[in-house]
Amino acid sequence: MSSSSQRQHQFLNGSIARALLSLAVPIIIANLLQAGYQLTDTYWVGRLGASAVAAVAVSTPVTFLVVALGAGLAMAGATLTAQYMGSGRPDMVNHVAAQTMLMVMISSVVLGTLGYILSPYLLKLLGVEANVYDSALGYMRVSFVGVIFVFIFFMFQSLMRGVGQTRVPLLIVLATVLLNFGLDPLFIFGWGPVPGFGVTGAAMATLVTQAIAASLGMWVFLRGRHGIQVKWAGFKPDLGYIRKAFFLGFPGSVELSTRGLGLIVMSFLVASFDTGTIAAYGIGANILQVITIPAMGISMAVSTLVGQNIGAGNINRASKITQLGALYGFVGLTVVGLLVYAIAPHLVAFFVPGEAVVINQGTDFIRIMALAWGCIGIQLCIVSAFRASGNMLSAMVIALVAQWMLQFPLAYVLAKHTQLGAAGLWWSFPVTNVLIAIISLCWFARGDWKKTRLTEEDQQVRRVSEEALVEEGYR
Asked: Pfam families under this entry (predicted)?
């Protein structure tokens, strides 16, 4: 039995715990390394002062929103890839990969161009302080230039996870993160004939390494030795598939865009305070991204296994995978939360040494969030199961509720209409996480997500979306 066949047997018939861990561990390591992009940027930019950190903090949610607009297509591709792999259709796996790459490349060019042009207006709309504006604009515009490379490599990773291949993306991430660590100080501070570009230099270093990662990903696909074989002829537009991917992926785009808009709205609130608060928020948000990586890795493993098992018709096994993944996520992030609570001041000081105000506010932010982090693990795993089954609508509604009915209203009321001030922003995070974990568990227990199987030949994704609307009571 080949290694690929052994892997498929393990995913569809073997120990669930072993299958989860065999997928999740490489994903977690890769995501930790990829978070090195943000951490490296924050570390070196922090040497320029609080206003420089604030520039990155303001810019990041805006670029995330643009990426999120096109990410629904990536979700559709990854979901279909996993289900076709589980149903034994390698021909459709290759077709889905080529068509999805075509769509994300076109989307990224359009969205990156719009983002670059609109950057000054977005920053003015956010009301950033004058001492932050120029640095934020440079960082944001370079980030938008690199959107196409972010899209391509994100799709490469998603499709490779769909077929259960996690080692190759891990090696690419390792190489490019190491390169980024060397390029960051070079482009930020300059050396020899290379001038220093300040905050913009951090984005330039990331742009170079992401371009290399995207190129390597395309090379792997074209060689076809790791589960997916993409040929140039496969990039000829297939309008039938594009229509299918649109109806499947549109709710995913809305979901991620909602999360991105939520980050921007939070930036509005944060920007209404002083530069120290903005910097504390940026550092706390970066640390939050890093500590959720273990749960993200588990949720991505859940997505692959649920997709493949639904494709193979193993619905009960898909349910057990989700439950075990949610348990792992809850326990893992709770333990991490306890540890981070204890060392919070040292973590913040690592990024902004000597900035007492930022260290104090950042410590408060992290400690208020930390003890509810386990609930993030539950939410991520359940939402990933919804996406893997093709129920993007359920994931979209949960995101809408989290951002617009819970977190933002809570943050606004607590920050602006109580004595908490900036601490009100911080408290909106744990309250939202606990409530959304409860909502997700109740939604999962209903079991409607089990009824979707996208790889049946007579099933159209348009009908799936319409039936999901009826089932969830929206018609």
From this structure: MatE (PF01554)
